[in-house]
Amino acid sequence: MNNVIILHHHEITLKKKNRNFFEKQLHNNLKIVLPKNVEIVPQFGRTLVKFSELDNNNLIIDSLKKVFGIANICVGYEVESNIEKFCEMSFEMLKEKNVLTFKIDTNRVDKSFPIKSMDVNKIVGEFVCRNFSLKAKMQNPDVAIYIEIIDENSYIYSQKIYGANGLPVGVSGKTISLISAGFDSPIASYKIIKRGAKCIFVHFHSRPYTSENSILQVESLIKNLTQYQFESKLYLVPFANLQQNIVSNTNQKLRIILYRRFMVRIAEIIAQKESALALVTGDSLGQVASQTLKNIFVINEVANLPILRPLIGFDKEEIMKIAIEINTYNISKEPFDDCCSYLSPRTPETWANLNEVIEEEKKLDSKNLIDECLKEIKVKTFSYQFFFE
Ligand code: ATP
Ligand code: MG
User: Fold this and answer.
1) Which residue from 169, 213, 259, 389 puts its CA 20 to 30 A from 8's CA?
2) Which residues line ligand 1 (CB under 6 A)?
3) What digits encode the pLDDT tens for the residues 150-176?
4) Ligand 1, closest atom to CA 237?
5) How far does the centroid of ligand 1 lie from the alpha carbon of residue 275, in Å?
6) Which run of H or E residues covers position 269?
7) Which domains does the chain have, with CATH numbers?
């Protein structure tokens, strides 16, 4: 009998020819979050994490819960595939549990094992009933014992914890995520990371005209998101000079749209440098003036890369729910002075005309303004915080 954590793969199991690639990435990611003294054993549709003894079991489970690509985290034991062993192990697992009802749930992956799943359930179940005063109950029992018969070894566990699902980070390439200190963009980044892509972050700030709060808040958000993608990079772009030029030279109604168009242009230059294939924003259709369909169209017009907007169909409540779940809520709720509230227009345009916007932009020395922003960029990196150091 050995201690083992069985990780059921999520969507990876549906991949055909590319499955190896997805599994390899998952295993590389697991190596980052797990302590060095565990053994990671790939198997069909699952990964085994073997260890002799762990004192920090809960910490390990907490880190595994943030690894995308895993459907279930099952904490149990490896035993020989043998019906006596299953009974023995069920006995061990139940003897210290203070419960009234149970069920045995067997999955016979190895069809050459001579006893069918239902019969294993029956034999082990009867054994349990003979040894304890417990009642079998199929729906919502106090405890379920799962038996997975894989080959000459089987896995038996009663602790089955939901994983984060999604795809292993790294399989979908790199994106540039435009992140503010607000609620939406960190959740948009989280959604993209969950689909297997890395986010390289870009934040536009108006220092020294605004306080450092937005930057500090963005850094806290990125530290949180780094738990899911293991390392992060943040480009801090000084935006005040460009904004002042827009304010002095163009129609006030179009300011936010012009800010956004320049954000997209600068983010694309960073994307090229980083070989990223898309931009990510936290836009949600109709949420604020800059996110009406027409304004999205006008902002999008400067982009050559796809702009991914994972929250486009989400309402604020749905976004907040995820923010609470992943603990970005408490960070984003702090007040911050954003570059867009600095020099914000009195009456923002809600349905901009593209030609008018292009005409207004002609009043700006765009190339030089962008070059100046690029010259003053600062880059910060963040790495995974190990529980085990
Ligand atoms: P968020 O909560 O993400 O700030 P929001 O509802 O406040 O979103 P906007 O402020 O209009 O909406 O921003 C729309 C999107 O533009 C953001 O989700 C983000 O992707 C990007 N964005 C806004 N401000 C900045 C900034 N200062 N730096 C980088 N990206 C930004
Ligand atoms: Mg915002």
Assistant:
1) 389
2) 178-180, 182-185, 202-204, 263, 281-283, 287-288, 290-291, 338-340
3) 999 999 999 999 999 999 999 999 999
4) 28
5) 23
6) helix 255-274
7) 2-165 (3.30.2130.30), 174-383 (3.40.50.620)
